[in-house]
Amino acid sequence: MRLSLNKILKKYGFRTEEIEDFSELEKRKKDVEGGMILADVEIDVLEKGFSLLKRWNDRFILMTPLVTDELTLRLKKMGIHRIMKKPVDPRLLRKVIREISFPDGVKTPSFGKKGEGSHFIQKGGEVL
Fold this sequence. Notes:
Layout: H1 2-11, E1 15-19, H2 29-33, E2 36-39, H3 43-48, H4 50-56, E3 60-64, H5 69-77, E4 83-85, H6 90-98, E5 119-123
Parallel strand pairs: 1-5, 2-3, 2-5, 3-4
């Protein structure tokens, strides 16, 4: 999953980077502001990193194998509004990325041409 997701993101013009823990996002503020976070983590991990995630929720996409109404409501209360069911459909991922508002001056991907674009930060086995 990780390699195929990296391949998809690179095809869309994103650079991907891995981090081990959400706490590393604080040091990567500039990268997150110019990109986004795509995560495949358990809810308890999200809750532990809630204060950081709250800051970046407009740039956060959560991937999870099980999307229920209860989980969706719980995540929305945490400020997470972009939730994708795994395995991720590349077309749906592209649609969700297009919904994110990037700051002025940030090159956004063209979704068809290779090149430099925004950042995804990847957490261990998860893309962030």
